[in-house]
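Before surveying the methods themselves, let us examine one representative protein, written as a sequence plus integers encoding its fold.
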Amino acid sequence: MIKKKAETGLKKNPCVITTIVSTRMTAAIAAKHGVRMILTLTGFKFIGEQIAFLENENREAEFLFGFEESYGYLSGTYVRDKDAVNGSMLICEMAAYYKEKGLTLADRLEELYQEYGYFKNHLIDFTFEGSKGMEIMNQLMQRFREELPSRLIGRPILEVADYQKQERYFLNEDGQPSGSVCINLPKSDVIEVVLEGGSSFTVRPSGTEPKIKIYLSAKGQYSSRI
């Protein structure tokens, strides 16, 4: 969608709104085309909130697209939630657009992997039922904050974002803090870890279920054998 809009002329200061657990591939595509990324906490309501902020400043024309990890899409400012009808139309539009160029959607995805690298996202969760479930999840999140190692899967940790503390801090080669920046989002019990090479994972308790969710995001070099 960004590529097609770029060919026909993007609005001034265009932006894409997504959540902190969604694919990082979009950020790479947006950067190439000069599109600003706005990150929100998990939940489409936060994407709708950002649209409202733009409208309040008469800047709604800047909104290009909104999406979240759990298959929610929106390309207009007419609603404040994910829209499956709109998403279906976008897929049809993409299929027709690339068919004219002799490509299928799978062909185009292969091209994106070749240009930006291979991105793979996966969600796993663990359920904690019963009256003690919340207590156990809170303890696990606290232990995770206190006992995070300097390396995981053989790779050094480069960044840790603690949305509860509203701080992202950076680590040097020895695993020692080398600086930090503030996170300009509401406090939330979420921890994000970024590894050398661009892979990352984010851990958070679910807001609607007795679960801890882990969002895995892997980045690698493209290979047609994958």
